[in-house]
Amino acid sequence: MASIEAQPLDTAIPFGVQVTGVTSAALDDESVRAELRHLLQEKGVIVCKDIEQTSAMQVKLSEVFGPLKEHPVYQVQRADRDALPGVIVIASGPGSCIVEIDGKPLVTWQPWHFDHAYNDEMMYAAVLRSIKIAKDGGRTAFACGVQIYNDMDPAIRAKAEEMNVLYNLDLRYDRQRFGLPDHFRLVKQHDNTLSEENENGPCAVHPAVWTRPSGEKVFHMCAYGCRGLEGDRSDEAFARLEEVWKEAERVMKVYYHEWEPGDMVVWDNTRVLHEATGSNPDEPREIHRTTIKGPLCHGWWEKPVEEAVIA
């Protein structure tokens, strides 16, 4: 019988586990698959070490947690649109966005977020595999919404529990109303027009706090792509959102993953926020990510104004 070994990622944080022994043969064993599913449910993030670095293995690991889900945005680059549905490519290149934080230029930087916030159906989980590891930067950060919720000031947490947050595909940083780091500067916008085309596009709605089947409350909100609150896009709404987000950032305990050859990282997108910390624009960086479908996708589309009035 195959077996895997698990240990905490970091004793200072209450989530995450590092696993060794994940091989293709091990994934054929249902007891191993069940253990991995349990670990993801309990710990939120799994770092697999010394795992075979192939697309086939990434897909096989991903399918332990659910079927692959086609990415909802057609323009997003795929590893192989026909052979590998649900596997997307995140890479630096001539058209990449460049930002500057504390005077340091960074490429492939993304602020704290959960994936598919702009869609009513989030993905359940994802697996990342680093194809080209940057020597200067390139870490991926994770924070657990259960821990954030539990540690927030109760008065501000109560405000978060009342919030249904709007998101769409306009992801331009110069349109982001809160949540950017201090000493942030946009150096070069993305060369694609996807965000501009979605400036007034439809908004998905997601609660800032939701309850897991286990009964745990999860803080699950971000500033990236945020367009306000359901029924309220006023300055006052953004001020309320910013207050809640600053409290979340104040208490979050972060795991920063330093990529090494042989790594694959799995995370529960309905529980965990993540951030791409960026890397040197002069270095190539490429990540492949699988998109995994699941039942805990709790968003809905914002009603058009005329429909909301009639309802």
From TrEMBL:
GO terms for molecular function: 2-oxoglutarate-dependent dioxygenase activity; metal ion binding. The keyword Hydrolase does not apply. Transmembrane segments: none annotated. InterPro entries: TauD-like_sf (IPR042098), TauD/TfdA-like (IPR003819), TfdA_dioxygenase (IPR051178). Keywords: Dioxygenase, Iron, Metal-binding, Oxidoreductase. Residues 11-291 form the TauD/TfdA-like domain. It comes from the Bacteria. SUPFAM superfamilies: Clavaminate synthase-like. Belongs to the TfdA dioxygenase family. PANTHER family: (3R)-3-[(CARBOXYMETHYL)AMINO]FATTY ACID OXYGENASE_DECARBOXYLASE (PTHR43779:SF3), DIOXYGENASE RV0097-RELATED (PTHR43779). This is TauD/TfdA-like domain-containing protein. It comes from Novosphingobium malaysiense.
